[in-house]
Amino acid sequence: MTDLGRVLVLAGGLSHERDVSLRSGRRVAEALRDVGVDVFERDADSELLSTFDTDRPAVVFPLLHGAQGEDGAIQEVLALTGLPYVGSPPASCRQTFDKPMARGLLERAGLNTAPAAVLPQSTFRELGATPLLEAIVTRLGLPLVVKPARGGSALGTSVVRKEEDLPSAMVECFAYGHVALVEQMIDGIEIAVSVIDTGDGPDALPAVEIVAESGTYDYHARYTAGTTEFFVPARLTPELTEQIKRSAITAHRTLGLRDLSRTDMIVDSAGTPWLLDVNVAPGMTETSLLPQSVRAAGIGLGDLARDLLGVALSRAA
To answer: Which stretches make up the ATP-grasp domain (predicted)?
Structure first.
C-alpha cells in the first residue's frame, strides 16, 4: 500500500450525469488499487457526512459530474469538513460551471469564443418566444448551438441548422436548466486538451481529436463505444498543437483551476481555435477524453490519480 492513507473515491450523486459519474468512479478506484492505494467508494447521498464520522478518509477524489460535482457544492462540503480533495476550489468551480461567466473571463484573457446570446426561460414567457427566436437568428445566423448555461456531457445541447428547429432545441435545453446559451456554430475540428498539475505547474497533455460518427459529439457519441473515432495526438501541425495547449493552460489559470481540467475547442479552417467549454471534473470512463490523453502521454491512470491525491494531501499539510 502507498502512504496516502485511506482514499475515498466519491461518485454517483443525483445529477443527470449520475451514471457517467459511477463509471468514472469505478475506473479510477480500480486504477488506484492497481498501484497499491487503499481505496473505498461511496455515493454522494444523505449518509455521506455521517460516514466521515465513522470511516473518515485521509483524502478524497471527487468524481461527481453535473451540477452536484462541478458547481462547487461538493467542494464546499469537503472544505467545511476539513477533508483534502483533488480538484479546484469551490469559487473556481462555480465560475467555470457557469458558462456565460466563464466565457467573459476567457474573452478578457484573449481567448476566442463564438458570438452568443444568453437568455433565461422567463424572458421568452414575458416577451414572447417568436420575436426573440427571430432576433437570435437575425443576429447570430445559422447554424447555431443551443445548450444549457450550466451543465455538462452535452445534455440538453442541440445543433440547429434550420430556423424551424430552433423552438424544439430551446425546449430541450430548458429541460436541463432555466438559462440558455445560444452560440454561433463554428465549423471545424473538435479538440479536447486536458491539463494536469502534479506539483510543477499546469501541463497540457496530448490533444484529442474527436470525429463523431453522427457528426455531433452528443451524449450518445460521448459514452457509447464505437460511435466516435478519436485521434491522439490530434492531427494538427506542431505550431497549432502548441497554440491550443497554451490556450488550455491559459483557460486553466484564468479560471483559477487546480489539479486537472479539460478544455474543449473547435479549430476552424483558418487554424483559429475557438473555446467551447472548460470542465473542472473531466470524465474518467472507458470512452472519456482525459484518460486517452493520459495514455498517449505514457502515464498510467492509477499513477496520475495517486500523484494528484498526494498533491491534495500536501496542500492540506
So the answer is: 103-310
